[in-house]
Amino acid sequence: MAETFRRDKRVRFSHCDPAGIVFYPQYFVMIHELMEDWFTEALGTDYAALVRDEGRGMPAVKVECEFLAPNPLGDVITFELAVAKLGASSVTVRVEGRARGQVCVRATVVTVHSSLRPLKALAIPEPLRASLQRFCDT
Amino acid sequence: MAETFRRDKRVRFSHCDPAGIVFYPQYFVMIHELMEDWFTEALGTDYAALVRDEGRGMPAVKVECEFLAPNPLGDVITFELAVAKLGASSVTVRVEGRARGQVCVRATVVTVHSSLRPLKALAIPEPLRASLQRFCDT
Amino acid sequence: MAETFRRDKRVRFSHCDPAGIVFYPQYFVMIHELMEDWFTEALGTDYAALVRDEGRGMPAVKVECEFLAPNPLGDVITFELAVAKLGASSVTVRVEGRARGQVCVRATVVTVHSSLRPLKALAIPEPLRASLQRFCDT
Amino acid sequence: MAETFRRDKRVRFSHCDPAGIVFYPQYFVMIHELMEDWFTEALGTDYAALVRDEGRGMPAVKVECEFLAPNPLGDVITFELAVAKLGASSVTVRVEGRARGQVCVRATVVTVHSSLRPLKALAIPEPLRASLQRFCDT
To answer: Which of A32, A49, A51 is facing C14, going by the closest CB pair?
Structure first.
């Protein structure tokens, strides 16, 4: 059985638009935060150190996202993340966000383990790969 | 032959991440700006007035986006937009962004003409529908 | 002795600029989050409910801020907040952020308790005023 | 007589909060854009190239800002910028934004010409200094 990674994110004033709900690009900001948490707290790879000290990161190359129900200011969204596909350098994550008993947002994000300057795909190193495997649901 | 709507957007310091390139949620901020420009300058419906005075808008319910090449600070991205599908209340737009002779970003955004408080789909009113039709490439 | 309100905020990828440090407008996003936390967790006024259900808020009318040391990705900033001045409808807060044993950011924000649509100052209601008083350091 | 630099910025959906007006940190995003425009279009120093190719920039060390009137979605803010003080490495700019015949925002931003990695103040090079001098109102 694959693991999933779960974190709550609160909808903040800065996330909201004139309709008083999350402006959709802000869901991707939250999903990026979720990935940072996942790396640092569950995968054993401090995300900030990866970027800052090693000049690597996980840029997105593709996203698909459905916004199924609006999230007003103050909502606590419970995000759940699993790995849908693990390639040589790519990691495809599936993310689902729920609030008040309802799925609000469902996304698939394809990210690529890369050196950042210049941007270039790199094979996922072994200890990270083993950690990622635990979250593979296929 | 369908029309397309085209606008240049410059990559700003605020769009960029520690890799010095556009942080992917910011592409959606640019694409939303593009839609605002399109409504106001080409469709005959002032986007700000639509939201502010009539309490309506075009929230996204689904996006798909490929990030094909990174855009460093200073890039001028030429965005081109067309309507892929026109429903009773939904408008699906196809957006392509090019810089330095290369396609950098390609997105499909499904938006729904809605009242904002509460959020509720509304049929697209006639004069707007006729304008949208000019950009339908199907 | 006046109370202070203290919360940690982690520097996220989305906060950082091409120099790999917090882009200065993002400090104000963090300080706004801090105020939301303060209202909800310490003042007995749920900030989201205030905005969403009562159409009130605390817009800023003036800010002064010094950026004393840069905060790279991954920094945990310990913010501390106190009330510098309490008016009929205004609340002036003093905020200090520290990381790695150093003061990084020091701000004064003048906010005004207001109805939001239309924007109009309102006297601070009594139970909120009493809570605010506990944080007055003068 | 000193020159001033002037540019219009439109209030976008992404700038606005649940009250339908500019969320105050977004004014600093606009003011940063204004400074980028100023460098690139008036000072003869392409801001993007400065950051990207030379690893230098103009981080803010202090800001003071008054928000005098709210700016709803769609407002066109005419920003005007002048240099209030020119130091060996610092540039203090004064910015005023007007919309619908009213001053909405008034800011002073102290920036420092710096190398970015690591962050370190650098004397302003001569051709840039001469250009900046033209905008000194003292």
So the answer is: A32
pTM above 0.90, yes or no: yes
D53's CB contacts (< 8 A; 6+ apart) are none
Chain C residue numbers with beta carbons less than 8 Å from the beta carbon of B20 are: 18
Indicate if the pLDDT at residue A1 is higher than 90: no
CA C68 to chain centre: 18
Name residues whose C-beta falls within 8 Å of residue B4's C-beta, 6 or more positions apart in sequence. B80, B81, B82, B135, B137
**Percent helix, percent strand, percent coil in chain D, to nearest 5:** 25, 45, 30
| Record: contact C13-B18, CB cut-off 8 A | yes
Contact criterion met (CB below 8 Å) for D22 and A13? no
3-state DSSP assignment of residue B85: strand
* B contacts of A32 (beta carbons < 8 Å): 23, 25
Question: Is A117:B19 a contact under the CB 8 Å cutoff?
Answer: yes
Give the whole-angstrom CA distance, residue C79 versus residue C94.
10
Q: What is the pLDDT of residues A42-97, one digit of tens each?
A: 999 999 999 999 999 999 999 999 999 999 999 999 999 999 999 999 999 999 99
Q: What is the DSSP string of D80-134?
A: EEEEEEE-SSEEEEEEEEEETTEEEEEEEEEEE-EEETTEEE-PPPHHHHHHHHT
Q: Which residues of A fall within a CB distance of 8 Å from D27?
A: none
Segments of chain D with pLDDT less than 70: none
* Chain D nearest CA to C15, separation (Å): 12
Coil, strand, or helix at residue B11?
Answer: coil
Reduced to 3 states (helix: H, G, I; strand: E, B; else coil), residue B9 is strand
